Automatic annotation (TrEMBL):
It catalyses: uridine(2605) in 23S rRNA = pseudouridine(2605) in 23S rRNA. The keyword rRNA processing applies. Keywords: Isomerase, RNA-binding, rRNA processing. It comes from Acinetobacter variabilis. Gene3D superfamilies: Alpha-L RNA-binding motif, Pseudouridine synthase I, catalytic domain, N-terminal subdomain, RNA-binding S4 domain. It holds the Pfam family S4. Residues 3-64 form the RNA-binding S4 domain. Residues 292-306, 313-332 have a biased composition (Basic and acidic residues). GO terms for cellular component: cytosol. Belongs to the pseudouridine synthase RsuA family. This is Pseudouridine synthase. Its EC number is 5.4.99.-. Responsible for synthesis of pseudouridine from uracil-2605 in 23S ribosomal RNA.
Amino acid sequence: MSEKLQKVLARVGLGSRRYMEEVIAAGRVSVNGQIAQVGERIEPGDELRIDGRKVQFQIEDEIRRRVLIYYKPEGEICSRNDPEQRPTVFDNLPSIQGDRWVMVGRLDINSTGLLLFTNDGELANRLMHPSNEIEREYAVRVMGEVTPQLKNNMLKGVVLDDGPAKFESFSELGGDGINRWYQVVVKEGRNREVRRIFESQGLKVSRLLRTRYGTVILPRELRTGRWIELDKQDIDNLTKSVELKPRQGTGLFGMAKRRNERMQEKPMAARRGGYLRQQRRDTDEQQPQYNNRERRDDQGFGRRENQNGTQFARRDNREDNQFGRRENREGNAPRGLYGANKGFKKF
């Protein structure tokens, strides 16, 4: 049982496979005391070092396969890091010691719904590869009338900038007025594919929610911004759909299993609205908040003036009283050095 060296190094979080190949080619990696070569395979028990520092690793088949469902809210981006400092879908995921989460597919910043994360890179690649034709199901709210002709066009196929595209199925979910909901299925994961198919027919998507990816359905009890971990049976069904063999130890154990059971019995509240909605609230409330702040400041300033005046009056009274007491003491104390009643000394 062995695995390619650059794949092992990438999985433990030291960099991408391509970067790890460059590191290996530079002679910075050794296996059992010998300088490693790109493409070399490593086995359990081998001593792996990079720049002289020992690296702990496991062969992929020995690692417990894990899969998370995450309910993406509007406003989060599908990236590990964002130069604009916007929230990302990785911000709320649990940490995974000695491994990392790999995202399966993407959703644009305005879309919501089901995202899958796994620590198995091969599973993620197979689920995303177009050749495996894994179905993605969406609930879509559309502005405009979807006539039978337009529906037929989208089922037969339309031509987009990056090639032909179509819906595998198309059904109506309901709605009122010009905003109606539809359920559609695609087998590719191209960028904004669902939106662009509708736009090709002069229709605008106002909301898009992914409800299914392959064999995994977005649970009703899961709230936006929350995650839940799949158990063995669900993971095995998912891996079977892309012809991967099951792994030993797959599934939930101990605290993780009890946490999932509690989630189903008593779902956690959704995280406070998405980033974009929060921005809109902040913009809408900015002026009233500013006025309230001015009013609070004015009231606070008035209170401060009153407090200062009271404090000054109290200080004046205290000083007057102290001065009066001092005069009395001085008037009564000529007979002694320390006052009339204390430390008195006759001359």
